[in-house]
Amino acid sequence: MRQSIIDGAPEAAATLAQKSFVLGIAPLEAIDQGFVPGMNDVGEQFTLRTVFLPDMMAAAEAMKAAMNVLEPVLKQQGTERPCAGKVILGTAKGDIHEIGKTLVGTLLTAHGFQVHDLGVDVPSDHFAAAAADLAADIVGVSALLTTTMRGQKAVVEAIEHAGLRPRVKVIVGGAPVTRRWAEEIRADGYAKDAMRAVALVQGLMGSHSDTIRVS
Predict the structure, then answer these.
(1) Domains of the chain: residue spans and CATH
(2) Which region, left, alpha or beta, applies to residue 115 given φ > 0 means left and ψ of -120 to 50 means alpha?
């Protein structure tokens, strides 16, 4: 299972997920002990720059394939993964880039978070409304352009104006985004890549027992 994720092999991952039923492996065990460790391995290699974005995307697709097999069975059994927290993701107003955001969403889902993806070019008030409606714990705002980074600040302000702070945390990311910018706009955190984003979210939620370690 682990190797199918490392290899970025969706068909193999789906097949192994199916075989886990025959072998009597519980779906939660297959996810948490079989597939997620493979995703962590690839993520750590990505952080060390020994693999690259296409490898991460391939691993994420393999993870999705496994989850597509296992999650319906969890629901049929009336079993649910413990929810690590509710996260809303979206790309700032005026920005249509989504690869990084989508990857973060896949990784967070693999680690037990409920993820609601608002898509791209999302107005700041939509983030605030979704955070209120879904009782979100964390809102993540991506921006790949310097001109759309201002949308991240607008999201922080919209959530503040909605009276959702400090309960709802806001994190930001994207190629031009820096820790200094995050501090300037009063965001709760910044991550420069997908694995660091997962570690950041886990830290904000206090999930210290299984927090990903990244340097």
Answers:
(1) 2-76 (1.10.1240.10), 86-210 (3.40.50.280)
(2) beta
